[in-house]
Amino acid sequence: MTGFARRDVLMAGIMGAVASPLVARTDIPPSLDVLARRKGLRFGSAISWGTAGADRGSIANPPYARLVAAECGVIVAENEMKWQALRPSPTAFAFERFDAIVAWAESKRLATRGHNLLWHQPKWLPRWLNSYDFGATPKREGERLLTTHIDTVLARYGKRIESYDVVNEAVRPSDGQLYDTSLSTAIGGAEATLDLAFHTARAGAPRAELVYNDYMSWEPGNASHRAGVLKLLEGFKRRGTPVDALGVQSHLVTQGLDARASVTRLERDWRQFLDAVTQMGYALVLTELDVRDNGLPTEITPRDRAVADFTKGYLDVTLSYPAVRDVLSWGLCDRYSWIEGFEPRKDKALRRPTLYDREFRPKPMREAVAAAFAAAPPRNRAT
Ligand code: XIL
Q1: What is the mean pLDDT of the segment spanning 255-265?
Q2: How many domains does the chain have?
Q3: Is residue 191 part of a domain?
Q4: Residue with the nearest Cα to atom 5 of ligand 1?
């Protein structure tokens, strides 16, 4: 089948336009999750909560929800499990939106990853927590707040969530040191706070995969971030903190049109980092794949080509590690990607960071991910 015809078939499925559901279809290309599973991997994406009719990357937006259900085996809530969403006040939990996402995933037989139990930066904690009065026994009160939060979330979802980003982004990229927050100041240090988060998670979900998740990447400028993460992971091992995997967010940034040359330049440092992580015994999860199309022309064809080639190069190197289990993209459709708001392009052209364009059409980046799965060495999966 030509690329064009194939695209139309996939689109027909996603847009719900397939005429006869009774005819067995043999012409639908395998989903990314099917391709991933042939190698012992899984593929997934972020998805949000939304109201019906809203133009969002949500479970209530039929074309987006169909796309995610068609391509994925696992999903992650883009924002709805974070403290800022779950914790309106020190005493309250607001589970409705995340509950709706987990229920939607289960109705589609998709697994859900938990993101996250502690985003260890003041910027991402609720305002009330940043100015919280920890009282006369701050250590005890800080520990109580943190463990109550984690216990409550884990008790609610039980075995329904098998992998959690327990701690998110604790390392300051500029110097590799750990951030401090009101919680860690009260508890008496960042290390003690992160350790407590992981021990609490292990006790509450003994069989779940516990992940430290961060955005140290392979582009220039990430060396101190990577070094800081390695130091943190070594400390976890030394102290016996129960951490199973490193979440490699994979918010990639292209380095110009010649993707192959960029990959060749970046590969050595990246392998050194992944070697160090895996030699410590950690598994790897690619948790938030997307691409900032920097240093690329406005014109779409060469831009998409370079994004796809850079992604393929990154995945070829990274999936060569059998320690990688899951690959999740941070959204599946350019229309809803957070990158547009986070860092718009200098030429004001709309960003193209994901696998599908704003009209839900697959882009070369989708083919790149499919090709990388096809080329990846197989691995054994315990779960
Ligand atoms: C982002 C969401 O996509 C945005 O909607 C939100 O405003 C901020 O957070 N690293 C992470 C994710 O771990 O939780 C972030 O998600 C993207 C960077």
Answers
A1: 97
A2: 1
A3: yes
A4: 338
